[in-house]
């Protein structure tokens, strides 16, 4: 992913669910907001995004067909970004074109030799989604949780899943801000834990690295198909000018992270953010302290005994008190602790804590002006599901 791939100057455009209060805060810019590489048009109180035709030139290079699995080339970027309400990087479309050439009959299974399946936004490019302009709003709502695994924070957008390994390993883009391009491609195995791991600045780099890991697996007897596939991925990465090395955007993210949070990828704040604005440094709350507190809130072994009820009530009171401390920080212009607390509660994963995770995440994203991440949080927690049956968009 290269910052030079998109030459249109970026201006922020609000999400479809943007509230009136936030609109008023951005009154000076809302009239000419641009969803980079396109425009945000307001109709009946809703924002609809269209992509400038010149930005679709990279989509379908060196491809002879006029339509790829149901979506005409010149409309692919427009349709995907309209449904997801997220800017998609050039490597996403290049990776699709690579997949179409590798397996013209079923591009989503072009990497089947490595057990990799293209999902998420690729479902739209494949023409598998029942898309029509009349059901766009419904699709937009469903896209918020389409292939969103249990521990996927709003910053994570699943694009690939790995099958046949008995895991819930999946890969996708990680964005610091919903109005920006991704900063790296990451992975998570929701069957194990909440950890998010970086894998390069584009899908080619991530897949190349994944196949390299598979080739090192001693349990795999015939590694020739993997070696051949890895070489094809490398050649197409070079062809489309995508580096397999660590990207500039990834390095910038690492330098700007306020705190790593429990999932490891951390979050980037604003101009007032600082590595000193953490729960540990401002309120002397270590990860160990929080973990113990969450365990006490979620204990159910002695909940029917008086001592158990008192212990749980005391833990809930302490968690509420921490919430008040983060709200006081927010009133003082420090938003970091609110979002950090929300992310860590979400990563703990227990449904008993969902009301706390929802409250602090929504508040944190609102404070940072990332309302679309707030909307994704709300939709995800309401439908948060373990497992890997996570297709939500209506299929043909």
What is the CA–CA distance across the termini? 31 Å
The figure for the number of domains is 2
Silhouette: globular
Q: Give me the side-by-side strand order of the main sheet.
A: 5-6-7-8-9
- Coarse structural class: alpha+beta
Approximate helicity band = 40-55%
- Give the C-alpha Rg: 22 Å
Tell me how many strands there are: 11
Beta-sheet strand percentage?
Answer: 5-15%
What composes the largest sheet?
A: 5 strands, antiparallel
Order of helix and strand elements from N to C terminus: HHEEEEHHEHHEEEEHHHEEHHHHHH
Low-confidence stretches: 1-66
Q: What's the pLDDT, averaged over the residues?
A: 84
If helices are DSSP runs of H or I spanning 4 or more residues, what is the number of helices? 15
Give a nutshell description of this structure:
The protein is of the alpha+beta class. 42% of the residues lie in helices and 11% in strands. The chain is built from 15 helices and eleven strands.
Topology overview:
Layout: H1 20-25, H2 27-30, E1 38-43, E2 46-51, E3 67-68, E4 71-72, H3 73-84, H4 90-102, E5 116-118, H5 121-125, H6 136-143, E6 156-162, E7 169-174, E8 184-189, E9 197-198, H7 203-215, H8 224-239, H9 248-256, E10 257-259, E11 267-268, H10 279-283, H11 287-298, H12 306-331, H13 336-348, H14 354-367, H15 371-382
Antiparallel strand pairs: 1-2, 3-4, 5-6, 6-7, 7-8, 8-9, 10-11
Helix pairs in contact: 7-8, 11-12, 12-13, 13-14, 14-15
